[in-house]
Automatic annotation (TrEMBL):
<feature type="transmembrane region" description="Helical">
    <location>
        <begin position="98"/>
        <end position="117"/>
    </location>
</feature>
<keyword id="KW-0472">Membrane</keyword>
<dbReference type="GO" id="GO:0016020">
    <property type="term" value="C:membrane"/>
</dbReference>
<dbReference type="GO" id="GO:0046983">
    <property type="term" value="F:protein dimerization activity"/>
</dbReference>
<dbReference type="Pfam" id="PF07730">
    <property type="entry name" value="HisKA_3"/>
</dbReference>
<dbReference type="InterPro" id="IPR050482">
    <property type="entry name" value="Sensor_HK_TwoCompSys"/>
</dbReference>
<dbReference type="GO" id="GO:0005524">
    <property type="term" value="F:ATP binding"/>
</dbReference>
<protein>
    <recommendedName>
        <fullName>histidine kinase</fullName>
        <ecNumber>2.7.13.3</ecNumber>
    </recommendedName>
</protein>
<keyword id="KW-0597">Phosphoprotein</keyword>
<feature type="transmembrane region" description="Helical">
    <location>
        <begin position="6"/>
        <end position="23"/>
    </location>
</feature>
<feature type="transmembrane region" description="Helical">
    <location>
        <begin position="61"/>
        <end position="86"/>
    </location>
</feature>
<dbReference type="GO" id="GO:0000155">
    <property type="term" value="F:phosphorelay sensor kinase activity"/>
</dbReference>
<keyword id="KW-0547">Nucleotide-binding</keyword>
<keyword id="KW-1133">Transmembrane helix</keyword>
<feature type="domain" description="Signal transduction histidine kinase subgroup 3 dimerisation and phosphoacceptor">
    <location>
        <begin position="180"/>
        <end position="243"/>
    </location>
</feature>
<keyword id="KW-0812">Transmembrane</keyword>
<feature type="transmembrane region" description="Helical">
    <location>
        <begin position="30"/>
        <end position="49"/>
    </location>
</feature>
Length: 376
């Protein structure tokens, strides 16, 4: 930002001094104002042409012509040369590859033609010396800029890989945790559950064979206690097997975690009435996993860090969630394992999922019906 304002102040100051040197008749003023208007309009529009290379090259060819036509007339105006250095700087900054040397050669050729027309040997020597000196400085600046850009690209590549590895480790840890829970659930079911069932059968047999009424009551109480233990064991097994998510609060916790660990900036919006909805565990899991997968895909396949999450209701009968983020390139959306898993989860709760790109923005939109009586 400092360099931008410095360039603007420098350009306006030097241009004003160049016009002051070129003071002429009213007709000349009109021509100077017209050329100055066109020059500054094209110069300030340069950032808009960055995506359209043909327009960018055309503007960079026109700007030196405007300077030459306005300031490189007899007598020679040295301030025009200083303005030409600004155009050379913009060329080095915005043009890549061998084309930049073609532009600089073109600008240098225009200057040489005007210098030869002046028929002043010392003027030519001083001007060429100044051009070589400033050209050397611009070359050093260009090399430093290229080096910084290369370092920036390497940094972004490493950061992208770091995010991928970190997400892979997180996913692997989550899968390991779920596998461990399922393993514990199987062991509880196969070991403790079967033994409690066998104990219930033995207690029942012992109660039937017992003649003493007091002992029968004791066996009955022991059987009830064993049955309660078996029921609690089955509930524990079911809980371990279930991918449990505690409603919308778990989703908010996920957003906080991603913002802290992955440096994302997430805007979270909820329409009125969303918090009143008491979602089932399957519904909560579907929203949680869809949100997690959408944000993970954003980190894997794009360099943006800003995302928007919206939760809302459609006619009080449907829940609708949307995750969207920008992308600066046309993306071919492929239905991989993650998207298929999201759609399957939504299908299980009679919902649907749409993943699409509109105006360089990726939209992940999910909708599912709410059961009557779910509002608190």
């Amino acid at each position: 930002m400092v360099s931008f304002w410095f360039t603007i102040v420098y350009l306006i100051t030097v241009w004003s001094l160049a016009l002051y040197v070129e003071v002429g008749t009213r007709e000349t003023w009109s021509f100077q104002i017209a050329v100055s208007t066109v020059f500054f309009a094209l110069y300030f529009a340069l950032p808009l042409f960055s995506r359209y290379l043909h327009l960018l090259h055309s503007v960079l060819l026109i700007l030196p012509l405007l300077i030459t036509g306005l300031f490189y007339q007899a007598p020679f105006n040295g301030f025009g040369l200083l303005i030409g250095f600004v155009v050379a700087k913009e060329t080095l900054e915005r043009v890549e590859g061998a084309v930049v040397y073609g532009h600089l050669s073109y600008q240098f050729s225009l200057l040489m033609v005007t210098l030869f027309l002046q028929y002043n040997t010392w003027l030519m020597i001083y001007s060429i010396a100044l051009i070589l000196f400033v050209g050397f400085l611009l070359l050093m600046w260009h090399l430093q800029l290229s080096s910084n850009k290369s370092l920036h690209d390497d940094y972004n590549h490493l950061l992208h890989r770091y995010k991928q590895v970190k997400q892979h480790i997180s996913d692997t840890g989550e899968k390991a945790r779920l596998n461990e829970r399922h393993q514990i659930a199987r062991e509880l079911h196969d070991s403790v559950g079967h033994r409690l069932t066998a104990l219930l059968m033995q207690l029942e047999v012992a109660r039937l064979n017992e003649q003493d009424q007091s002992s029968k009551e004791t066996y009955k109480e022991l059987k009830a206690l064993a049955q309660k233990s078996l029921d609690e064991t089955r509930e524990a097994v079911q809980t371990l097997k279930t991918d449990h998510v505690e409603g919308l609060s778990a989703i908010i916790q996920l957003i906080r975690k991603l913002e802290a660990e992955s440096h994302l900036r997430i805007a979270f919006y909820m329409q009125p009435g969303v918090f009143k909805q008491s979602l089932t565990n399957d519904q909560s899991v579907a929203i949680y996993r869809a949100t997690q997968e959408a944000l993970t895909n954003m980190m894997r396949h794009s360099d943006v860090k800003d995302a928007v999450i919206e939760f809302g209701l459609v006619g009080d009968h449907y829940f609708r969630f949307q995750i969207r983020h920008d992308t600066y390139k046309e993306t071919q959306i492929e239905e991989g394992f993650g998207i298929r898993s999201m759609k399957e989860r939504l299908k299980m709760i009679k919902g649907s999922l749409v993943v699409e790109q509109k105006d360089q923005t990726i939209h992940v939109i999910g909708t599912f019906p709410l059961k009557r009586g779910e509002s608190k």
